[in-house]
Amino acid sequence: MSNIHHPSRRRFLQGVAAAGTAAALASSPNRALALQSPNERPVFATIGLRNQGWGITQKSTGLADFVALADVDSNVLGENVEKLKNKQGKAPDAYKDYRKVLDRKDIDAVMIATPDHWHTKISVEAMYAGKDVYCEKPLTLTIDEGKLIEKVVKETGRVFQVGTMQRSESSQRFLQAIALIRDGRIGTVKKVTCGINGMVGSPVIPVTEVPKELDWELWLGPAPKVDYRALPEMRTGYGGGVPLYSNCHYAFRNWHEYSGGKLTDWGAHHVDIACWALGATDTGPSKVTPLSYDLPVEYKDGYPVVNDQYNAATKFKIGVAMPNDVEMIITSEGDNGILFEGTKGRFFVNRGKIAGKPVEDLKENPLPEGAIEKVYGGPISKNHTANFIEGMQSRKQPISDVWSHNRMLEICHLSNISMRLGRELNWDADKREIVGDAQANAFLSRENRKGYEINM
């Protein structure tokens, strides 16, 4: 990477020593926090703009002023600069290198929507640069990355929102589901099934020329250096305009080098709600068992033996032993959503509906007044960004905090490790390590490519 300023832990701690701990944690090392009153609009920037990056940006323009955008694809960057100019009446500055955003002293917070393998490096460096952070889910590529982010949040005092928007949006169906469980409407929960869809494998994807608008070296970043691969057929619909089969852009979710397949894509949504409902957001499972699964390529010692096809699981059924003898099933079969089953009944919830007899019974026996707000922890924010900004103002962590997210995501990461190795894993939730399995524990972390280490 080019030799420009790197925010760092050393620089942050020098600021703490100079300003005093309390003052340093209350404001950025670079500037006083802009949010001096609830009526003052924060200054934001977005790093990573394709699809969800633009989605969270355009939804937030009514709440914040965006002064900068960054993306390694010049076409995507240019298109989004123009769209944002039209939406907010002023063009943001444009950068290929995200570090130039972090160097800006006028920016309060960054929204990160890069591919997953970049999340941790940018998040950590942003916090040391004095920025609050909104980062898309899944927050990490490994369990140890989650531990690092928790450490830096605590050390810097930054506010950090994870983009698991089901916690505050989707017409409050998921909050209602949790309220039903807490009010005992299905008795004691015995089983929860998270349907998160499967995926399809790919044909062999050949090495081809890198698109001229894409900085492939910078897109790879912390991931291993490999050739760009793509087939000519283009993706349509959501995420369209890019090759249907590639090792980049929308398809990155299908490669363990950059993401975790459906387990960390939809799993990061539904497993999160399931854990919240079970009161397991600060604990973890005791065992993860791959009951059945299909990997699209051959694996040896947990690694794919070929590098020219998608390698994340296409079909799966994972058994998870949760606290209080609750059985969790994560499956690619059936409806996308969550089925809660208890000693007195069951119901199903997803983004489009909440259904079952306990829901029907609400007509005659509604939930207690304020039950949904009690789940949320107070008045419900109008959207996920509003909750983030409220946290910036109060200096309290928002509804999708890093600790609850990481505990939930550990289940998804362990599920992938169990399939890659083809065996059951016993998990020590206190030590946050796999019991008696050195090979499996090696998958809890990864080494960033030289030149792209996390700058501490």
Automatic annotation (TrEMBL):
Give the enzyme class.
Answer: hydrolase
**EC number(s) on record?**
3.2.1.49
Q: Where in the numbering of this chain does the Gfo/Idh/MocA-like oxidoreductase N-terminal domain appear?
A: 80-163
Keyword tags:
Glycosidase, Hydrolase
Q: What does the record give under GO molecular function?
A: alpha-N-acetylgalactosaminidase activity; nucleotide binding
Q: Which domain of life is it from?
A: Bacteria
Q: Which SUPFAM superfamilies match?
A: Glyceraldehyde-3-phosphate dehydrogenase-like, C-terminal domain, NAD(P)-binding Rossmann-fold domains
- Coiled coil location: none
Q: Does the keyword Hydrolase apply?
A: yes
InterPro entries given in the database record: Gfo/Idh/MocA-like_OxRdtase_N, Gfo/Idh/MocA_oxidrdct_glycsds, Gfo/Idh/MocA_OxRdtase_bact_C, NAD(P)-bd_dom_sf, TAT_signal, TAT_signal_bac_arc
Give start and end of each Gfo/Idh/MocA-like oxidoreductase bacterial type C-terminal domain: 200-453
Q: Has the keyword Hydrolase been applied to this entry?
A: yes
Which NCBIfam families does this UniProt record tie to the protein? TAT_signal_seq
What name has this protein been given in UniProt?
Alpha-N-acetylgalactosaminidase
Q: Which organism is it from?
A: Roseimaritima multifibrata
Primary gene name:
nagA_2
